[in-house]
């Protein structure tokens, strides 16, 4: 004999999934995605799969893919109710990685997962994603919004992003031509970007009420949450004009772990300490955490978000092109034979 409770209908909404909210979000997203459309897009948002045709100007296109998230920076977004820029972080982390191969990002897809969908919050996040795509010239052509009751605490969500780019086979940047004597240029970061936030959060917790009101002329929270800089358009323009040999996106592991990824065996990057300024933000983090310069340079980007390796005779012209496009550029070192030393030396 069944009880009345077992025969009472339970809708999907009763179980915690609101299809109407999901539909409302899609309608909010459509005009944002439309602003990112570019050559190659064959179908808009809403299909089971997104269609994209590689532009015909490519003779031997090689596709380059990248995926990433925003990490624990999201915990501060939840705590401070600052959701409009983490989408830019999401795009930047993937498209900057794709750029390192010399590739032009073509399209992007996002994955937004939460316990209960708040349409306004999700729309703010996706608005940032669309803005990031617009600024880097790639199309937001699809994604997934997953409402999963019980999987995430109230008010929290997770993000993942996926970028696909293209590069001519003959122009892939592998770093194999990097040689002793080449110059290392550093492009300034916008702040912490999206790595090292487990330590950033510990610093905020340690500082408590003694945290500064401003850092580098910005309110404290804005300085901390400043989104990852999108280097795509300016670096692609420089690549078209100058003999750039390698690029390194300075993410988790900082300068010490990321530069070696694009160096041939037997070579090292010798960076000159003090050749780029330490911002108030990074000075505060270092002082609050009580860590040395080595730990700073392998935890954070420490002020340099992208590294560009060029022949010595092209360094000034390359830097001038990047500066004219709006980048802050520093000559931070050179390539040398490694010998028995480390692959990155800061001295």
Core attributes:
6-stranded mixed beta sheet, 4-stranded mixed beta sheet, single chain, 12 strands, alpha+beta, 347 residues, 12 helices, 23% strand
Unreliable parts = none
Number of strands: 12
Helix content: 25-40%
Structural class comes to alpha+beta
Order of strands across the biggest sheet?
8-10-5-11-9-12
Describe the structure.
- Helix content is 35%, strand content 23%.
- The strands form 3 sheets. It has a 6-stranded mixed β-sheet with strand order 8-10-5-11-9-12.
- It has 347 residues and is of the alpha+beta class.
- The longest helix is centred in the middle third of the chain and has 18 residues, at 119-136.
- α5 (119-136) links the parallel β2 (104-114) and β3.
Summed up, what is this model?
The protein is α+β, with helices and mostly antiparallel strands and 347 residues long. It has helices spanning 4-7, 19-34, 73-80, 86-99, 119-136, 197-207, 220-225, 232-241, 254-258, 280-289, 293-299, 315-325, and strands spanning 61-69, 104-114, 139-147, 157-168, 183-188, 214-215, 218-219, 246-249, 267-271, 304-310, 329-337, 344-346. Strands 8-10-5-11-9-12 form a 6-stranded mixed β-sheet. Strands 1-4-2-3 form a 4-stranded mixed β-sheet, with helices on one face. Strands 6-7 form a two-stranded antiparallel sheet.
Secondary-structure map with pairings?
Elements: H1 4-7, H2 19-34, E1 61-69, H3 73-80, H4 86-99, E2 104-114, H5 119-136, E3 139-147, E4 157-168, E5 183-188, H6 197-207, E6 214-215, E7 218-219, H7 220-225, H8 232-241, E8 246-249, H9 254-258, E9 267-271, H10 280-289, H11 293-299, E10 304-310, H12 315-325, E11 329-337, E12 344-346
Parallel strand pairs: 2-3, 9-12
Antiparallel strand pairs: 1-4, 2-4, 5-10, 5-11, 6-7, 8-10, 9-11
